[in-house]
Amino acid sequence: MSVRVLSVALLAMAASALCACGGGSGSSLSSSTSGSSSGSSATSNTLAITIDGGSAAIVQADGIIPNFAYVSVTICANGSTSNCQSIDHVQIDTQSVGLRIMGSVLSASLLAALPPPTTSGGQPIFECAPFADGYSWGPLATATIEFTSDETASSVPIQIIEDVNVPAVPADCVNAAGTDYAESTPATFGANGILGVGTLLQDCGADCAEETIPGSYYACTSATSSGTCSDITMSVAGQLQNPVAVLSSADKNGVEIVLPAISLTGALTASGTLYLGVGTESNNALGSATVFQVDSLYGQFLDTQYAGVDLPGSVLDIGSNAYFFNSSIVQCSSGFYCPSGALTEAAVIQGESSVTFEGQTAIEGVRTGAQLPVQFDIGNAGSFNGSFAALPELGATGSNGSFDWGLPFFYGKPLFVVFQGQSAVGSSQVGPYMALVY
Amino acid sequence: MKPRDTGILPRLTGALLCAAVLATSRPAHAALGAGLDSLVGDQAILGGADVVTPMTTYDLHEIKAASGTTVREYVSREGTVFAVSWGGPSHPNLQQLLGNSYSTYQAAARAHRRGHHIVSINTPDLVASVLRLQRTSSGQIYVPALVPQGVAAASLR
Question: Is A314 an interface residue toward B (CB < 8 Å)?
């Protein structure tokens, strides 16, 4: 199925011509996705996932990005059903929270209808999203998100990632990120936006409401390049919200992400489905999935035992595009694993109720729940077909004390995310947790 | 009780940064690769006490920052910081922590991109492993040439 309708460049050029979507766009989206739905659901709760290496503009700039799962999301001016735009190639992430969209892919008329919210003093509010490899900077906006024809969330705080005619990035935003690399365009970010559907309900939570935290929320003297910005506290309600958790329907308790099983040698592209809700419809039942509680403080960690080492800082991370873990497997110079022949490795995954940090690998985790022995395959990254967007054997060195179960692990293994304080219909377990059909 | 995150470097001003870097300036490096005096600046900025644990061939300095993040600096008997590690709710200011190695780190991080959550660098000049998630950061960075003989990298937790 083809999700990509327009290239980023075309979106930018034809900006003002793209406003006639609204209901029409929503219904076309739902009709295109209902065909891939496995169940007959009364409510349209499915979004098509595509793994195609990126939009034309991204591929042109970066080459094919393997193992990025993209969806299309329709964004509207808040409360509007006509000033809307379907944004393709929005990456799904289970280790962040909130919808962030590149300002450069939004039409001028929609952008104009998404002014940043302001502080009580009238100053526009901006946000810094620090990542390991850089940062994204830009104003907040309050928008209506149309996931499907039936599933709409209104008055949702989102971030517009922008580097044109906005205040300079504050120094403490750069410091809070790993490097000074600005991820402010589809090419530098690898996507037109990111849909963070991790287990938590906000990106920062109570901490940001209680005190200023460098590298989070800012008030600026102007929303233009003449503005200067300083750290502010931000109420929990004003923060970036998990956009699925603010749906008005019962499907706000979590998501299920289903990717197809594909040949170990890879595939040109792959298609899957993002289901809204867990156990709420006929197509998103938890079933026999193994439940992994994630730590309640950070809402992300679980335990992995690999090669005799306990890794309590592990994560199930659909937003990482490889298995990232440290191992004795032969590496290429790039740090990707390049064994002469494909290897089948073994590990054990288990939930955690809490973790405490000392140094990086001095993480203590309190394990809980079922242990799931798993196997995974690591191939020679130097011999993969460079035109393939779906590479199930892609692995690379990672971070000490952690096994980052990236997207390749989830080909053929449905992943559930049940949000903080929510439970799946048919289960008494309360989130935050993730669950895997293995 | 959730650790309160005041940020590991509340309001680091240009002047303060300048002072911190100047205070740690040794001929080759500041911070990582720099002398013991760089720890004094780190301690002040991180807002925590420096707890020293003597090991066989080095001293482990541990500063629990006000943010809840623990920063560890590994100092050789010659007084050189050869490794740093951290873990907790906030990300340390790597420009301060790495000193002159920061530019090496940045260049290598760009050359070895791993997506938004991971930095993994293994070069003769610098070895780094960083995990950055929405509400946590942890990492280990060291200069292989400065690590005292007989010290295993895995022990630099």
Answer: no
- What is the full per-residue pLDDT of chain B (157 aa) written as tens digits? 333 333 322 222 222 332 333 333 332 233 787 766 666 566 656 667 788 889 989 999 888 887 778 888 999 988 889 999 888 888 888 888 888 888 889 888 887 766 788 888 888 889 988 888 888 888 899 999 999 999 888 788 7
3-class secondary structure per residue, A134-173 = EEEEEEEEEEEEECCCCCEEEEEEEEEECCCCCCCCCHHH
Ranges in chain A annotated CATH 2.40.70.10? 8-248
Considering only the beta carbons, identify the residue of A180, A190, A359 that sits closest to B87.
A359
**Pairing between β-strand A343-356 and β-strand A302-306 as defined by DSSP bridges:** antiparallel
The pTM for the full model equals: 0.85
Q: How much is the ipTM here?
A: 0.79
Q: Is A283-436 CATH 2.40.70?
A: yes
The CATH class for the domain spanning A8-248 reads: mainly beta
Q: Nearest 5°: phi and psi at A404?
A: -95, 100
Amino acid identity, position A388? F
Decide if A132 touches B, using CB distance below 8 A.
yes
Please name the residues between 141 and 200 in chain A that touch chain B, using a CB distance below 8 Å.
171-172, 175-181, 183, 190, 196, 198, 200
